[in-house]
Amino acid sequence: MKNIKKYTFFTMIICLFSTYSCTDILDQEPVSITHPAVFWDSQPNAEQALAGSYGLFKYAITYQANFIYWGELPGMTFMNSRNWISDYIENSGNYVLAYRDNSRNWKNFYRAANWALTIEKYVADMPDNLFTSVEEKNRIIGEAAFVRGLSYYWMARIWGDVPIVTESVESSDQLLGEDGFIVRIPRSNELEVLDFALEATNKAIGLLEYSAPGNTNWAITANRGSAEALKAGLTLWYASRDNNNSDMVQQSIEAATSAINNSGAELIDYVTEGKDGFDAMCIGQSKTGLFEINVSADMNESFRMESNDGHYTGLTLNYPIWKTENTGVAPTIDPDFYGKEMMNEDDDRENDIRKELFFYDYESSSNSFPLKYSHSSADPNSEDAYALFSESNIVLFRMADMYLLRAEAQARSGATGLAVADLNMVRSKANVPNYNGATDDDSLMKAIFDERAIEFVGEGKSAYDRIRMNYYEGVPWMNQSRIAKKGYFWPIDPSIITNNPSIVQTEYWRGAL
After folding, report:
1. Chain-wide mean pLDDT for the chain?
2. How far is CA 265 from CA 140, 226, 384, 451, 475, in A?
3. What does pTM read for this prediction?
């Protein structure tokens, strides 16, 4: 994803799939994609295809700031968006968002997953001599498998049960049954979806090599450490959805441990590295990153920062990034939300340096906001001082996540001492004393949740943490009745169900759309 040719290829792929989506895969007239004899004939073409797969996943999570709507706002930990569309979530837990049909539609993830599966299929069949080495061929296949596993992992966390498409869809013949009708694929049980994602992730681990900070594509393309990070999160999610499945808990511990020991990544020590360490983490490709969505003007992969609700910069930043506080979208760190109350009530947090580094004016009751997406560069072609290009990467996996996922997995396995040790490792980097509270299941899980809440503020993790850890304190609209009907998952776009009657709406949302 480093040059304009690959960026242009991403545009080509988006155009290629503009009438081709998961909805289309399941129920609408499809299109044919590039003929294999024409395209799959060189390593550069395979690399371009791979860049397209990354680009499609990036589009899926960033379009209309979806990753913030899915993973941040429902968690109600720190950030009150002050956006009328977000009010649907924060005030009543209603995920039926106006002008946000794509928040309920999984089509963009299927575009990424299908293109990844297509790459896996065709690159595997390409002669080895078309590549600079067999290792390079395996890397391309492994990275594609990573994107496929990542796409299904995200869908499982957002919708739970989703269809599994096991065949690379390339022509209408594949979607027509013998009777001439378009094939309908129903939702699969979420554990089956996670198994499918795990198969792809294990494939990626087996084919990829470790990288190291400073390497050209460090963290912005997948390496073995990235895939292990994905596995650590995926298997822990699986365990939480399957009665604390002990095998999955152990797999999560092993994957996180391998990433910690072998990936080359390190924790940022906020105490000693201060703002430089924080800035490096956010701008990206730092020593702590394991996988992140690249945003860089120098690489032609940035965008003009905007303050509206269609951009995650608008949903996370506030004055003085923008000229005015009154954008109608600008967020605040609400003193009545869970996160700030937790920080205020915990004496150990008094000198937590993340209050200074992660936020603008943390102590303000009306003007504090997270700074993780505030890094920018000026537009050299504009005289407007507020014409800025974003330079903040979207970090999906980093080393602190590995320690805290492992802490949670250790806690689930009953190894409370090891869990506390991992928790304290992260706390120590932020000038927070060692945890000395109770170590029963509920208390330790709360301590880990609290650490994740502050460490990953604004990164789109808190809503998933709440589901995985079954911890909803501070979310007034979540209740046992809603949980029993899986109302923590997002509804499915009605257009998908209209076109494919084999798709059944999640119980909680039936009759609500």
Report:
1. 91
2. 22, 10, 38, 20, 34
3. 0.92
